[in-house]
Design a protein that fits this description.
The complex is a heterodimer of chains A (508) and B (143). By secondary structure, chain A is mostly helical. In chain A, 70% of the residues lie in helices and 0% in strands. Chain A has one domain: Cytochrome c oxidase-like, subunit I domain (Cytochrome C Oxidase, Chain A, Up-down Bundle), CATH 1.20.210.10. In chain A, helix 3 packs antiparallel against helix 5. With 143 residues, chain B is of the alpha+beta class. Chain B folds into 2 domains: 36 residues; 98 residues, Cupredoxins -  blue copper proteins (Immunoglobulin-like). In chain B, the strands form 2 sheets. In chain B, strands 3-2-1-5-8 form a 5-stranded mixed β-sheet, with no helix packed on it. Classes of the chains: A mainly alpha (508), B alpha+beta (143). Chains A and B meet through helix 3, helix 6, helix 10, helix 11 and helix 12 of A and helix 1, strand 7 and strand 9 of B.
């Protein structure tokens, strides 16, 4: 299997191409660029919090801008575009079609990302990735805030266009001989997450427009001084962004479904339960949004409804974990780099989910809400699960895309350091939250427990930083000078059985 | 696709569902008790604004940045905001409720020991959010 045209071409040919592997490559490079940019901001945050008092960041406004852009970048400019990269490479091949259904739309959806990224980075807004009103309306400095709003607007359109393309490609362009129950689970994950995007994003798109007109002073949807209600923004926002959590995590789980059976040299334990769990997650993902809002003064009944809705997502997530463990059970596993990332990701997915049960239980949420517990919790998902699945999949794709092999030792070093770092940062942050440290603070009082745990977390972050430097060096060096890969079986698993997809990669 | 029987997975799913039902029921029961404000609770109006807390007791006395309460009595906070969202938090007593302009949210507690505790803002509210802190003094009853 090869995923890339092997002939070297001038860069403008790739940039103006509409072929799915070329657009996939563009997605890949842009998302990894933003991974490193957003990640460096995280290192700045951790360095600042190493000790109480001002360390390397001059003032709290700069700090607030940094964590806002850090979150926005990694969610919207790394995780989602990375999934689109994988989807572009794999979905057409998996449904045995020559390209995406709408190639030009596909290229347009990609080319909306760089301008949006530029708006977000040049603006450097300070109102957190949640842009909470009335702060974002009456207090947040422009034009940064407005640039953020336009950036997110563009990214929302890009997501919807990409999602429509995936849905049509999978449902309408799959080979007539294939039934929907035969497409691989990775393609199923894109079908589920794309459907969620189409249902969820318009709500936030509307909220963004209302936020903008509120900022301009011509409306007062969320401005209490004009009779509006900030809580309605919270509902609109989380109606999009709780399902969006599943948009982020489902493709990463899909990537693990691709890696784990191959490196276990066994078929997946239960294909049907994988589909069932994807569909369940896409549905129950819509029944839990207000669990982010227990502390806004919701009634007991509302809280109960959303707690039940949240807990309902747990069995479906647990089914994925079971499926992975059952596949690896008694298997001849080969722990190459992609497999290590996938297995590490599953372990952290389980931990993140267990922590999530605590958040969703109403009385306990009042201990954890808006503390570092929550920071640790969702980072175990976005870093521990989604980034781990994505990076594992990047190693898995690497020989097919470049025709060369990455350095296996460096890949393993990258994994081990990242895993240790992730545990040090985010498990510690859970405990720090139980000690009551609020999130989004530039400075903290010298409470001994807080200092100790912040230092552990900062050291963990530096370890992740070092591992990412190893990763970058490995990727750059290996894609130019790595050993030529055997594209039939680059990981030495034996037998073509493990690579069932015939690439249709016509020159064009 | 897999030809084998899948009963271990369904047993596992049943166990997970049972566990979640138990967690949910316990949480429901605990929250129901916690939300029940005692009838004799004294009201304190807690106002959040960028970037400090003001407290007004029933007798009209006001305090800024600190709050004095008596041990063994129940207090109900009516939490309001004059500008942006804040979140009123006494972590040691698991007191947490958002201060949202245009709304009055209530939360209550009954301090059981003499001592000092931190009051903080737990919802991002801008420039000095990190230092929107105060102190709770729990004292012996005066009368």
């Amino acid at each position: 299997m090869t995923l890339e045209l092997q002939k070297p071409r001038p860069i403008w040919q790739i940039m103006f191409s509409t072929h799915h592997t070329d657009v996939g490559l563009l997605y890949l490079i842009s998302s990894l660029t933003f991974l490193f940019l957003g990640g460096s901001l995280a290192l700045g945050i951790r360095a600042e919090l190493f000790l109480p008092g001002s360390q390397i960041i001059a003032d709290s406004m700069t700090f607030n801008r940094i964590f806002t852009v850090h979150g926005t970048t990694l969610i919207f400019l790394f995780i989602i575009p990375f999934a689109s990269a994988v989807g572009n490479y794999y979905v057409p091949i998996m449904v045995r079609y020559k390209d995406m259904a709408y190639p030009k739309l596909n290229a347009i959806a990609f080319w909306m990302i760089p301008p949006a990224g530029v708006l977000i980075w040049l603006g450097f807004a300070d109102f957190t990735w949640y842009a909470t009103p009335p702060y974002s309306i009456i207090s947040a400095p422009g034009p940064a805030a407005d640039m953020w709003i336009f950036g997110l607007k563009i990214l929302g359109i890009s997501s919807v266009l990409g999602a429509l393309n995936f849905v049509v490609t999978i449902l309408k362009c799959k080979h007539p001989d294939m039934s929907i129950g035969q497409i691989p689970l990775l393609a199923w994950s894109f079908l589920s997450s794309s459907l969620i995007i189409i249902v969820a994003i318009p709500t936030f798109a509307a909220a963004l427009l209302m936020l903008l007109t509120d900022r301009l002073g011509v409306s007062g949807f969320f401005n209490p001084a004009m009779g509006g209600d900030p809580i309605s923004y919270a509902h609109l926002f989380w109606f999009t962004f709780h399902p969006e959590v599943y948009v982020l995590v489902i493709p990463a789980i899909g990537m693990m479904y691709e890696i784990i059976p191959r490196f276990s040299r066994k078929p997946i334990y239960s294909y049907n339960s994988g589909i069932f769990a994807f569909v369940m997650l896409s549905i129950v993902g819509f029944s839990s949004w207000a669990h982010h809002m227990y502390a806004t003064g919701m009634s007991f009944t509302e809280k109960t409804v959303f707690m039940v809705g949240t807990l309902a997502a747990v069995p479906a997530s647990a089914m994925h974990v079971f499926n992975f463990v059952a596949t690896m059970w008694n298997a001849r596993i080969r722990f190459s780099t992609p497999m290590m990332w996938a297995v590490g990701g599953i372990a952290l997915f389980f931990s993140a989910g267990a922590g999530g049960v605590v958040n969703s239980a109403m009385p306990l949420d009042f201990t954890t809400h808006d503390t570092y517990w929550v920071v640790g919790h969702f980072h175990l998902f976005v870093m521990g699960t989604i980034a781990f699945g994505s990076i594992g999949f990047l190693y898995y794709m690497f020989p097919y895309v470049t025709g060369r092999m990455y350095n296996e030792t460096l890949g393993k070093i990258h994994f081990v350091l990242s895993f240790i770092g992730t545990v040090l940062v985010f498990f510690t942050q859970h405990v720090l939250g139980l000690y009551g440290m609020p999130r989004r603070i530039y400075d903290y009082p010298p409470i001994p427990e807080w200092i100790a745990m912040n230092q552990i977390a900062s050291i963990g972050a530096m370890i992740i930083g070092i591992s990412m430097a190893v990763f970058l060096a490995n990727m750059i060096h290996s894609s130019a000078k790595g050993k030529l890969a055997d594209t039939d079986d680059p990981f030495g698993l034996g037998g073509k059985y493990y690579y069932p997809f015939e690439a249709k990669n016509p020159s064009h | 696709m897999s030809g084998h029987s899948n009963w271990p997975e369904w047993i596992y799913v049943a166990v997970v569902i049972a566990l979640m039902t138990w967690v949910g029921a316990e949480a429901w029961e605990a929250e129901r008790l916690v939300e029940h404000v005692p009838a004799d609770a004294k009201t304190i109006i807690a106002t959040g604004q960028q970037w400090f807390w003001t407290f007004e007791h029933e007798d009209g006395t006001k305090e800024i940045g600190e709050l004095h309460v008596e041990v063994g009595k129940a207090y109900k906070f009516e939490v309001v905001s004059t500008d942006v969202n804040h979140s009123f938090n006494i972590h040691d007593y698991v007191v947490l409720i958002d201060a949202i302009p245009g709304r009055v949210n209530t939360v209550w507690f009954a301090p059981d020991k003499v001592g000092e505790h931190d009051i903080q803002c737990r919802e991002y509210c801008g420039l000095i959010h990190y230092n929107m802190r105060g102190t709770l003094y729990v004292t012996e009853p005066t009368s």
